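Something for you to look into today, if you have time. Could you write out one complete protein record for me, on any chain you like? The space below this message is yours for that.
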Amino acid sequence: MPTEYLIALPVEDMPLGATYARDEKLPLHCTVFQWFRLSPGLSCAQLNRKMMLLASRVEQGYIELVSERPALFGLNDDIPCHLLERNEDLSALHTLLLMFLATHCHFTVPVEWLGAGYRPHVTDRGEISFPPSTRHRAKNLVLVERNEEKKVVKSVHELG
């Protein structure tokens, strides 16, 4: 399996270098950009520089995540999560990443989940969830790498 990447705003701690089994669920997080593969013309270091630049543009130093309602996601609409209220900073971050990645990566998820189809959410982790009206100030943007064996937090960028 080729290496894939995910960009997220952590709700629970996701420190640099944290390692998770391939089948283990990640700590609670808002997915900013679902799993994708880098094209040969883009290195992980170049992606990190772009993420650092975009993270630094978040003026207030955080993105407020507010849970709105439960939902089901995934290819079979069978993964429990909680949709988030619309947030201009989060939408702008997703759109800027989409514009960059569209020419530098291969998407491994349906394109309907990107751009106008992006629905920010926090996926449940077993009994742990992000129930309606819960608020969290996400202060970091993280890059997670996934290969055949494990998932690793490759970079952590402070917002603002």
About this structure: The chain has a mean pLDDT of 93. The first helix runs from residue 44 to 56.
